Structure formats: C-alpha cells, structure tokens
C-alpha cells in the first residue's frame, strides 16, 4: 500500500501524478491551439479574398462615378463616395500587413515560399526595432575594423574579412528590408536598391587581387569607409530622434524606418549634419574619379577597377550627387529638400 512505501518513493509518485495532470492539460491546450490556427488560416483566406473582391468592385464603382455626369444635387454625394474610395487603398494596405502574402522574387530565391508575415503589432515593431539596432551595431563594428586596418595593420586577408563583412551586412539588410516590406513597412524602392548596389560593390572589392593598384587605392577606401561609418552613426542618432518625435506627434507609421519624413523643426540638428553629408558625397565622387583614372593606366589588368569605376559612376550615383548640388541653391523647395533627405541616406559604398 501507499502508506507502507518509503517516503522518497511517495514523493516521486506524487510528483509524477502532478506532472501527468499537467501533461494532459498541455495536450488539451495544444489541441485548442491547433484548432485556433485552422480558424485563423480560414479567416486569413476569407480576408484576402474579400480584399481582392473589394478592390475590383471599387474600380468598377470609380469608373461609373467618372462616367456619370452628376447633377448638382448628386455632386455632393458622389464627391463623398470618391473621397472614401481614395482612402480605401490605405485601409487595405494596413489589413494586408497582417495577412500572409506571397513573397517577392528576392525573398522567394533566398527563403523559398515561407510565410514571413508577423501576426501582432508588437512582433512587427520588435522586428523593425531589431533592424535599426542591427544597422547601428554593425556600423560601430565596421568603424572599429576600418580604424584598426587603416592605422595599425596592412594584410590583404584582413582586408578581405572587412569586405566580406560588408557583403554579408548589405545582403542581410536587403533580406530584412524585404521582410519588413512584407509586414507593411513603407520602405522606398531606392533605399533597398542602393543596398543591392553596395553589396555588389563590396563583392567586387572582395575579389580584387593584391597588387600595386589595390595598394594604391586601399588607404583611400579604408579612410572613406571609416568616415562613412562615423557619419552613419551621426545620421542614425539624428534620424532616430526625428522618427521618435514624429511618432509621438502621430505623424508617422510605427513600421516606418529612419529614412523618411521631414519637418521644419528638424533643421536644428540637420545644420550640424549637413557638412558631413556633403563632404561624404563629394568624397564618393572623388573615389569614382580615382578609380576611373586607375582604369586608364596601361598596367591596369584587373577587371575590378573598371567594374568599380563604372558602377560608382552610374547614372544613379551621378543623379545622387547632382541632387545634392541642386539642394544647395533651392533647398527651401519642399520637393527637392525631401528628395535630398531621401538621397542623403543612400550614400553607396
């Protein structure tokens, strides 16, 4: 009998009994969880199909409103309908941020057909916040490596480590940004595109063999990398402060990144940052010219020099620097100033 059992055995049996009861509760909870998942899956499909149906019907209604010549008494009603139709796409965008979406080409190639949609606002914001921290931490690491390699060591295999880190960093950014876009973040296309360019340029730099031309450009590149990392740290702190204030004022979306939006009160911090940004952009142009001149030398055999020169002197980069010059004269114009603010964050390579 239980009373005749040793004390230790009774304790074990009691613990086992409690554990077995908890396990049965766990099984029941897990069963309910699976049922809820099936319900959520059905609701997601219903919402997605309803949104598609709404979009097509809204197009039909909008076409009918434009086709009909309204009388004076109908004009006000039709104007209200038109205004409501204009607001619906934003509402659908917010809804779709919480629904599974088919991955774009890039995510499909990297991850396959995996659902990357986060289901709660807390999860979305946490992932976005982690993205911002990832950029900042890696910028500090790149700053440290550039400083050490420029002033203290000069080995090609260490330079390769830095360039590999740059390739990994920019490739990781493109993946994370694609996931953020799938979760409703309104990242501009140029912002992701300039990271593709940066990853390509870093990869070309990684394959550049050791030689006289590489040694000639090495210190110039490391000095620029050191300066760029420093400016990116300043930018990050400035933009984080601006974005925090805009969110507090209710003027920005929680999933927006530190690359969008401008208000007049931002001039205070921007006047300090502008000289660093302009100098960095002209330094980038100087790098392009230096590489182009190197590619014209008779002893230039490496294809990497021409590739780097051509890529950094692309129309994208030329437009980039041209817009900076335009903004020097007409930065009071909102369009050009906003264009400058967007492009100021996209200093490639």
Automatic annotation (TrEMBL):
Residue spans crossing the bilayer: 134-155, 161-182, 189-208, 265-286, 318-343
Membrane topology summary: Multi-pass membrane protein
Localization per Swiss-Prot or TrEMBL: Nucleus inner membrane
One record GO biological process: fat cell differentiation
Keywords (A to Z) from UniProt: Membrane, Transmembrane, Transmembrane helix
Keyword Transcription found: no
GO CC terms: nuclear inner membrane
Family: Belongs to the TMEM120 family.
Protein name: Transmembrane protein 120Ab
Species annotation: Cyclopterus lumpus
Source species taxonomy: Eukaryota, Metazoa, Chordata, Craniata, Vertebrata
